[in-house]
Amino acid sequence: MTTPTFDIFNPQISVVAKGLEGKVITVYGSNNLGKTKQASRMKKPLYLPLEKGLNAIAGIPFMAINNWSDFKKVNKQLQKNADKAKEVYQTIIVDSLDAFAKYATRYVCNRYGVERLKEGNEGFGLWTEYATEVWEEVDKLISIGFTVIFIAHAEEDKEGKKSPKGDKRTLAPIIDNSDIVVYLQSNGVDEDNNVIKSSGYLAETDEYFARSRFDYIDTYIEEYTAENLENAITVAIERQEQAEGIEAVTYEEQKESQASEELNYEKLMAEIKSVGGQLHKADKLDEIQEIADKYIEKGAKITDCTKNQVEIMAVILDELKDLLADIEE
After folding, report:
1. Residue 6 class from Cβ within 10 Å (0-12 exposed, 13-18 middle, 19+ buried)?
2. Do the Cβ atoms of 273 and 316 come closer than 8 Å?
3. Over 60: is that where the pLDDT of 4 sits?
4. What are phi and psi of 250, to 5 degrees?
5. Which of 9 and 2 is assigned the larger pLDDT?
């Protein structure tokens, strides 16, 4: 895949992807509403239980997650073997966000040798480290191209409005990246005392939080099932194609359209040396050092940058190019 260079006069054009590939969905509600059962009925699932949600469901591939390091290991394997994993799995299910936050908290506390987050960093707390840890792992998982379903319980605020339960620092990267947030509501039992399937709500009201990025989606699923959820998304995209005269693309095409310039250490260093050489010949050593001093340790050489500093190198290279362009004008 060829990644584009930054040029505000040649922008990328946003596109919509068909199907569920790459979609992020959060489903929440009280117990026994079918959250886990219907998620496990999605196509080619891999279930990551952080609580005992599979006790009454058989035949579902799963990886037991008993701590944050287990989650990181699975996430790393999915990243490292993405092509092979996507042949086997299409849907990754994380259940539930309550335990997700607790495991992440314990991991960060153990990493920094404290009992509670507020005790770390000499009393200033480890909230930033905790939020960063969660964000990085969530970002890795949702960037591979699976349909990712996060399952949460519901909680009420002081006014009685329902929303996904969990630590706000954990919820933020998940809810903000969710294409759909579904609130499930019980329909009770029928006259024979058989459980009636729950209903799903996909638009916010005064009673509960829910949402969808898709303007043309049905905001109510009377009988919440895996098939009905997938159909609602599929139909919404088809309606958008017809209403807006667009053509939906594959997930890979969408991902390519959203790619930015790849930051490759060797390539960046070669360009820095090339541009730097030209500036050296133009007797611009002082200007080169001024640029270096802005972004790295004062007095250090740009060529001493490490592979962990590729973003800084990219900014430095951009300034070196501007300096060279001014000379050549």
Report:
1. exposed
2. no
3. no
4. -75, 165
5. 9
The pLDDT score that the predictor gives to residue 1 is 43
CA of 93: how far to CAs of 148, 178, 289, 327, in Å?
6, 13, 50, 56
The DSSP result for 61-82, as a single string, is: -B----SHHHHHHHHHHHHHTH
4 with 258: CB under 8 angstroms?
no
Q: How far apart are CA 181 and CA 285, in angstroms?
A: 55
pLDDT of 195 over the 90 cut: no
The pTM of the full predicted model, rounded to 2 decimals, is 0.85
Asked whether residue 96 carries a pLDDT value surpassing 80, the answer given is yes
Residue with the two structure tokens 């667009």 = 246
Q: Quick one: pLDDT band at residue 2, thresholds 50, 70, 90?
A: very low
* Res 261 pLDDT > 60: yes
CA distances from 199 to 94, 180, 204, 300, 315 (A): 21, 15, 14, 62, 50
CB atoms under 10 Å from CB of 239, counted, come to 15
Bond preceding residue 96 cis, omega within 30 of 0: yes
Residue 72 CA to residue 77 CA, distance in Å, equals: 9
The length of the chain, given as a count of residues = 329
Structure token pair of residue 134: 């969660």
Residues β-bridged to residue 154: 164
Please provide the average confidence, as pLDDT, over all residues in the chain.
Answer: 92
Residue 44's SS3 state is coil
Report pLDDT digits (tens) over 27-82: 999 998 999 999 999 999 999 998 776 676 889 999 999 999 999 999 999 999 99
Listing DSSP states for 165-234 in one string gives -S-HHHHHHHHHH-SEEEEEE---B-TTSPBPPPEEE-S--SSB--EES-TTS-SEESS--HHHHHHHHH
Cβ atoms 107, 137 nearer than 8 A: no
